[in-house]
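Input record (Table S2, row 232):
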Amino acid sequence: MGKDVIIACDFSSKEETLAFLDKFSGKKPYVKIGMELFYAEGPAIVQEIKARGHQIFLDLKLHDIPNTVKKAMAVLSRLDVDMVNLHAAGTRAMMEGALEGVTRPDGTRPLVIAVTQLTSTSQERMQEELLIHAPMDETVMHYAANAAKAGLDGVVCSPMEAGKVHETCGKGFLTVTPGIRFADGDKGDQVRVTTPAQAKEIGSDYIVVGRPITAAADPVAAYERCVKEFVG
Ligand code: C5P
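Output record (cytidine-5'-monophosphate complex):
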C-alpha cells in the first residue's frame, strides 16, 4: 500500500469542488469527500469525481446499530469508493457488520478506517461527559486495537499517534492522519500539527490535507510540495 496525500475537499457545492479539481489538469489526486459536500450534492458527486479518475475517501463517519451500518455500507460500496470510515465507539459488532456490508459480491471492498476519539474531544470532556476514565492516549490505542480485532484496515489519528498505533496494531495497520501544516504555514484551528515530512518520519500512511492546499494561492504547487515532502 503506497503512501499518499489525500486532499480534503471541504467545499459546499459541486461547482466549487469541480472548479478546484480542474486546476489539477491531468493530475488525479486522492480526494476526501466529507459530510458537507455529500449531504449537499448526494451520491452523484462521488460518482462524478470517481468518473474523472480520482481515488476517493468518503468521510461519513458512520455510527449506528450493526445492522443499519451494515446496510448503509453496502450502499456506499456500490459507489466504488476507495476508503470509508466509521466510529470505533460503535463496538466491534458494528465494525464487523460494516465490513460484511461493504464487501462487494466479487469480494473486493474499500479500505475501512475507524475514528477513535475525535480530536475535538478533550480528555477532560471525554472523562466528564462520556464517563471514559482512561487517559486519552490509552483510549485511542484501545479503540484502535478493537478496530484491528474487528478486521478493519486502520484508523484516523494524529500523526503524533501514528508510531504508537503501529506498535499496538502492527505496521500494516494504516494510519490516516489530518492535522498537517507546512513549516511556514498558518495553523488555523488545528492545534497539534506536523509537517508532511514529520508525518512521513513518524510513519503515517496517508496524510489528509485541507486548507494548506485548498486555500493556497497555487493549490497545485501546494499539493506537489506535500507529495514531495511526504512521498519523496
Ligand atoms: O484544512 P485542514 O487541513 O485542517 O483539514 C483537515 C481535514 O481533516 C478536515 O476535513 C477535517 O474535518 C478532517 N479531520 C481532522 N481531524 C480529525 C478528523 C478529521 O482535521 N481528527
